[in-house]
Each structure stands twice: as structure tokens, then as C-alpha cells.
């Protein structure tokens, strides 16, 4: 028992020592808590006073603000204890009643609101540009079917009648007429070559492939179509210039016939490429589960990923807009070909058209939705306003108006091909081949209907051209681009007088030119930017020999500045395949 009492007494002594130590720690902790309370009270009072003073609503005198701050602080850190004041309910009430003022950062929120408004304006402005560009492509496309055959007939009539009448002229055909005859001959040859391509065999060959393989083939065809368009327009331009180049200028070229065969093979292979695209789309429409059509539509949404999260400038966006216009018009023609082939297989039953109609609307709707989303986010991420689309529309209108001038440098269909990458010849050859194989014309009544249909196309072409020309003049005036039109028109007059003076001083190398042909609408224009400056340097060589060194430095500095300025391209100098900012979009 004594041992147990000793153990209990030792335990009690140990507990007393621990209690004494705990009392000391509690005292120290209470001291620290009081210090923290005072610090928090001072920090809160100063912060609250500064907040109230900076408040734009409470613009009062400083004494009143301090009194109000003390009145707010007193119930929190007054006679009550620290733990009772900083409760959960007080924190929740403070979170529910605290406020903030957005006008302190007015510029940022105004910018965000303008970006939202820009995104909302993009669909309207984009569709205006798309609508205008669609009818530009339609005008160039209808030209191949309506006015081009008539112009070819007039050129052939001139070629036949002028030698018979005994008229001595420098050229039997004007340069524009030579280009029209070449286009007509290329179309006729490619049309007969397309008869050797079996559409049915191609359809069943493509239908036997797997879905994934067809998806890869369709993507490859889109890339090949862009490459064909970029190189094909150069082939056609080289042919036109080689055939119409003045005989006085001896330049190295391989001849007209090799260029002609190159153009024929290009149009033929490009038409086959478009036929494979149309056949693949036809297989997608006729598939039972529509899986291929869904995959092909999803390819449009993949385009958003590839373009939205990249840096774009205004020129790059212009190229993308032109590409979207060309792509949308080409898809409409492909859908027309698909509908014609399907209607032929079902004996032109109108009920089958309503079976195809939902799929056609789905393809068109997905294309429009992708374009709107893509352009909306590109303009948002690159800080481009929606007004830029009116500039793009004015640039396209300027091409149309300038092509109607007397001294135009190119035909309008060729300018559309360069600007948008849309070449109507292969697409027209394919459409003629599909229509002639799908629609059987038999009897005089059928030929009368074909003639009336042709007159309707001519009427549509003329009305479309008149409306487009009026709208284009309006857009050019709104953009204040009339001066550029007058500059291009007035630049041709000095060029003519300059070349006449040069021809007088130089020895004659051939027959005298016919002045009546130089004033014609279809006369070969003179390019001032390339041909005029070298001749000016040669004619004024004696002046450069006597020029002091200082003036020579000024001339070299001016030439270097002009070269530096020429690198900054205007919208009128940008076509579909111009490199802008080390990229082509």
C-alpha cells in the first residue's frame, strides 16, 4: 500500500507541473491573440477608410468618412470578444453584401462589349460578301455558256469575211477574240475527251471502297483542286499571252501549240478531278446509314480548328474569304450534278428530289455555319473589325468596274479566276457532259425547249451583269475608290503617246499599225508598271550620265524606297495565291 501511495503522489506532482506549464502557454497565447486583434483592428480600419474614401458615390468630407468608419468598426471590435465577432454568419453576410464598381475599368469592359457586337455583326457582313461574291462567280460561270459561244462565232465570222472583202488590216483577230477562240476550242476538245470517261464505272469503283478510305480520298481531292487551280490559271494566262504577244517583241517561249496542248490537258484533268469529287459526294448521298456524308460534313468543322487558332492579317483574311466564296459556289455546282445524276437514275421522279432535299440543306447549312463561326472567331482573336468585309466587297467590285473600261487589261472571268482561284472552264465542261448524258433531247419540240432555255440563260446573264455593275459602282463610290479608276484610265493615254513617239524615232520593222484597232474596246492594253519604266531609263540615258553624285544618291534612295513600299501589298494586289505574311490561306 505504501508503494502505491508513493506512485500516486508522484503522478499528482507530475500533473501539477504540466498544469503549470499549460497555464503559462495559455497566458502567452492570450497575449499573442490580443496583439493580433489590435493589428487586425488597425488594418481593417485603415482599409475600410481608404475604400470609403475612394468610393465615387460617397464623395463626402473626411471627418464624416472617419466617423462612419469608426461606427462600422465599433460593433465588430468593441466590447465583444474576438471569436464572437469573426463568426461564420458574419463572413457569409459580408460575402453577400459586398460590392464592386465596373466603371473603375471602363475601357476594358467597353472593349469586351465591342468584341461581342463585332461577333454579332460578322454573320450579316460575311453573308453580304458571300452573296456578292457568289453572283460574281455565277456571272463568270454563265459567261462560258452564253456570251462566249456568241463571241467565238463573231470572231470566226470576222476571220472569214475580212480576207474575202480585201481589207488590209494588221490583225485578222483582236487579242480578246483570239483568247475567246482558244477558250471555245479548248472546251470543245475537252468535251469530246470527257466522253471516254465512264461515269458509271467510276461510281461503282468509288462505292466499293471503305468509308475511311473515301474520307481520305475526298480530302486529297480538295488539296489537289487548290493546286490545280493555282497552276492552271498560270497555264491559261501563258497561252493567252503567247498567242496575242506582239510580233515586234522577240521573247523566248516554246510556241503557241505546246502551250495549247498544256491548257487542253490541264482542263481535261481538272474536269476529271471535279468529277471524282462529285462522284464521292454522290456515293455519300446514296449510302444507307449516311455515315460518309456525316464524316464529310465533319471535315468542315475540322477546318475551324486549322484556321481559328492562328494569327491572321487583313490580307490573309481576304484570301480566306475569296476561297470560301469559291468553295461555296463549287459545292453548289457539285450538289446540282449529284441531283441531276440521282434524278436520272429514278426517271426524273419529283418525289425522289424531296428525299435528297434534306441532305442538300444539311450540307449547305453546315457550310454556312462553319464559315460564320470561323470568321467570327478569327476577327475576335486578331482584333479585326467587321467593317473589313465592306472593304473586301469594294475590292471585288473594283475588279468588275475596271474590267468594263475601254482599256481593260484582262477579261472579267480571268480576273475572278485570279482573285478567287475559281476557273470556270473545267467546271463548265463537266456540267455540259453531265447534262448531255442525263437529259435526252429528241424531236423538234425538245430542241425548241433547249433554245428557249439558252435564251433564258442569256437573259439571266445580262440581268445579273447589269445588277452587279450597278452595285459595284455603288460600292466603289462608298469606298471612295473612283480616283484609282481614273488613274488607270488616264495612265493608258500617256502610254499610247509615249509608244507612238518611240515608234517614230525607231526604224520601222513591219507594216504600220492600224489606229482604228488601237481605239477598240478589245485592243491589247499597255502595262505601264512593267514596260514604261525601262523605256524611260533608256531614252533619258544622257541625262543620267551628266547627273551629279548627290542626285545619283537621291535617285538610288528613291528607288530603294519604292522597292520597300512595293512590298506592302494593297488589297487590289492580293489574289487567291499571293503569299501574304509568309503564308497562303
Task: Report on the architecture of this protein.
- With 585 residues, the chain is mainly α.
- It is 77% helix and 0% strand.
- The protein contains 22 helices and no strands.
- Helix 5 crosses helix 12 and helix 12 runs antiparallel to helix 13.
- The radius of gyration is 39 Å and the shape is elongated.
- About 15% of the residues have low confidence.
Provide tags for this entry.
single chain, 585 residues, mainly alpha, 22 helices, 77% helix, elongated
Give the number of helices: 22
Overall 3D shape: elongated
Helices and strands, in N-to-C order?
HHHHHHHHHHHHHHHHHHHHHH
Radius of gyration: 39 Å
The average pLDDT score comes to 76
End-to-end CA span: 102 Å
- Please summarize the sheet with the most strands: none
Instruction: Kindly state the percentage of residues in helix.
Output: over 70%
Amino acid at each position: 500500500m505504501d508503494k502505491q501511495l508513493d506512485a500516486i503522489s508522484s503522478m499528482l506532482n507530475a500533473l501539477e507541473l504540466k498544469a503549470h506549464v499549460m497555464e503559462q502557454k495559455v497566458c502567452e497565447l492570450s497575449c499573442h491573440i490580443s496583439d493580433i486583434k489590435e493589428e487586425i483592428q488597425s488594418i481593417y480600419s485603415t482599409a475600410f477608410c481608404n475604400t470609403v474614401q475612394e468610393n465615387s458615390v460617397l464623395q463626402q468630407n473626411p471627418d464624416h468618412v472617419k466617423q462612419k468608419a469608426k461606427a462600422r468598426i465599433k460593433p465588430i471590435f468593441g466590447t465583444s470578444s474576438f471569436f464572437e465577432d469573426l463568426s461564420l454568419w458574419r463572413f457569409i453576410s459580408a460575402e453577400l453584401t459586398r460590392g464592386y464598381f465596373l466603371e473603375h475599368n471602363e475601357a476594358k469592359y467597353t472593349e469586351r462589349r465591342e468584341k461581342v457586337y463585332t461577333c454579332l455583326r460578322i454573320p450579316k457582313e460575311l453573308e453580304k460578301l458571300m452573296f456578292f461574291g457568289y453572283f460574281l462567280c455565277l456571272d463568270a460561270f454563265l459567261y462560258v455558256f452564253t456570251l462566249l459561244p456568241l463571241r467565238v462565232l463573231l470572231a470566226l465570222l470576222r476571220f472569214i469575211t475580212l480576207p474575202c472583202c480585201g481589207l488590209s488590216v494588221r490583225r485578222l483577230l483582236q487579242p480578246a477574240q483570239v483568247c475567246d477562240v482558244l477558250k471555245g476550242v479548248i472546251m470543245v476538245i475537252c468535251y469530246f475527251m470527257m466522253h471516254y470517261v465512264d461515269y458509271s464505272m467510276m461510281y461503282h469503283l468509288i462505292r466499293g471502297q471503305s468509308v475511311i478510305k473515301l474520307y481520305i480520298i475526298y480530302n486529297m481531292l480538295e488539296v489537289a483542286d487548290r493546286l490545280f487551280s493555282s497552276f492552271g490559271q498560270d497555264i491559261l494566262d501563258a497561252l493567252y499571252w503567247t498567242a496575242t504577244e506582239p510580233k515586234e517583241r522577240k521573247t523566248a517561249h516554246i510556241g503557241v501549240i505546246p502551250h495549247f496542248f498544256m491548257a487542253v490537258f490541264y482542263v481535261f484533268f481538272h474536269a476529271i478531278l471535279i468529277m471524282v469529287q462529285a462522284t464521292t459526294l454522290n456515293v455519300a448521298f446514296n449510302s444507307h446509314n449516311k455515315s460518309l456524308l456525316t464524316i464529310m460534313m465533319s471535315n468542315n468543322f475540322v477546318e475551324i480548328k486549322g484556321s481559328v487558332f492562328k494569327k491572321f492579317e487583313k490580307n490573309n483574311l481576304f484570301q480566306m474569304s475569296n476561297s470560301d466564296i469559291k468553295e461555296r459556289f463549287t459545292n453548289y455546282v457539285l450538289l446540282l450534278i449529284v441531283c441531276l445524276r440521282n434524278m436520272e437514275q429514278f426517271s426524273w421522279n419529283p418525289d425522289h428530289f424531296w428525299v435528297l432535299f434534306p441532305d442538300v440543306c444539311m450540307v449547305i447549312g453546315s457550310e454556312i455555319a462553319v464559315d460564320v463561326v470561323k470568321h467570327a472567331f478569327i476577327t475576335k482573336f486578331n482584333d479585326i473589325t467587321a467593317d473589313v468585309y465592306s472593304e473586301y466587297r469594294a475590292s471585288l467590285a473594283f475588279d468588275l468596274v475596271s474590267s468594263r473600261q475601254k482599256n481593260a487589261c484582262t477579261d472579267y472571268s480571268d480576273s475572278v479566276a485570279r482573285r478567287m482561284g475559281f476557273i470556270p472552264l473545267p467546271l463548265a465542261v463537266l456540267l455540259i457532259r453531265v447534262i448531255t448524258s442525263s437529259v435526252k433531247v429528241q424531236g423538234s419540240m425538245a430542241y425548241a425547249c433547249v433554245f428557249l432555255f439558252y435564251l433564258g440563260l442569256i437573259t439571266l446573264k445580262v440581268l445579273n451583269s447589269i445588277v452587279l455593275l450597278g452595285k459595284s459602282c455603288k460600292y466603289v463610290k462608298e469606298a471612295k475608290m473612283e480616283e484609282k479608276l481614273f488613274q488607270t484610265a488616264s495612265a493608258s493615254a500617256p502610254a499610247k503617246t509615249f509608244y507612238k513617239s518611240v515608234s517614230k524615232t525607231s526604224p520601222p520593222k513591219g507594216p504600220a499599225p492600224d489606229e482604228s484597232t488601237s481605239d477598240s474596246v478589245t485592243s491589247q492594253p499597255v502595262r505601264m508598271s512593267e514596260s514604261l519604266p525601262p523605256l524611260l531609263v533608256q531614252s533619258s540615258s544622257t541625262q543620267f550620265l551628266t547627273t551629279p553624285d548627290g542626285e545619283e544618291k537621291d535617285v538610288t534612295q528613291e528607288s530603294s524606297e519604292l522597292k520597300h513600299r512595293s512590298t506592302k501589298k494593297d488589297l487590289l494586289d492580293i489574289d487567291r495565291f499571293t503569299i501574304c505574311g509568309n503564308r497562303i490561306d
